[in-house]
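User: I'm preparing a small set of examples for a lab meeting where we compare how different chains pack in three dimensions. I only have the primary sequence for this one, and I'd like the structure in token form so I can line it up with the others. Please keep the answer compact; I'll paste it straight into my notes.
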Amino acid sequence: MIEIISVRFKSGGKQYYFNPDGKQFQEGDGVIVETSRGVELGTCSQGNTLIDEMELTAPLRPVIRAATEEDHKTLEKNKEKEQKAFQICQEKIAQHGLDMKLVDVEYSFEGNKVLFFFTSEGRVDFRALVKDLAGAIHARIELRQIGVRDEAKMLGGLGICGRPFCCSQFLDEFQPVSIKMAKTQNLSLNPTKISGTCGRLMCCLKYEQEAYEDLVKSAPKQESFVETPDGAGTVSSVNLLRQTVQVRLESAPETPKCYHNCELCVIRNGKGKRPEGYVEPPLEELAKLRRPAQEEAPVSQPQEGSLAAALEAVFQRSAQASAAPAPAPAPTPAPVQAES
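Assistant: Understood. Below is the structure token output for the 340-residue chain.
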């Protein structure tokens, strides 16, 4: 086992392991570390902890020291320089007529290197641009082309769910996402509904994919030929989350009926036609072939004093108030006649 701390250099960025070198750090502390890009100021995202040495992919670099107030002032000055460098680069791009979109600028902590991030549909010859930028900024210049997903991660924003982008909040790395995931989850295949702001498939399609794959194993496919308690029929639609299906019975094909998966006996999965020579077995045999009903999991009671218990109490009071009979209206007092 070896002691490490985790450090981020950007909000939502990737975590890197460093050797605390006998010092104690807590989450949120600023640290000065040596990286492949030189000395950088990062934020401790996880304090001192022990991990297996097998998890390390490269030798650990030690933490130089804890960040001071002067270090944070230097970081703020670098951010001001980044804004000026961004404007200069945009002007130079327009002068050279390059087909590229500038996304972000990063100054190294020591200020001797500037990294420009841009997007472009094709390759860009920016050698002349680099020379002009080096003369205007007087620092080492590096231009790096990124994809649209990295652009969304850098710029941030709100998704169609109303929450900040997952990639800019907590995703360290992008996971592969395919249209097959949307099909498995019975989502609309309309690109505008399953694509993020970056134009690619939403990263959140990956989150529940394993759960849906498990549900698919216990559900019949659409157009399967099945036996139900009311006779044979064809599956017209499947609800994976509720574990129910709509079946068009041969006796009443115009009005599909809803059944739980455990009530069905699948005769032909995904074919949709009655097998030739098929004879409906007796009810006793069908009962043996049907899938056993899943045992209901015990419902855990919310702990006293927790938020769940408080919400449960509010719901119960609301239900009791709605079920209680309305109080009878108070009798209206008779008008009092004044004596003449």
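A couple of notes for your slides: The first helix runs from residue 69 to 96. The chain is about 30% helix and 25% strand.

User: Perfect, thanks.
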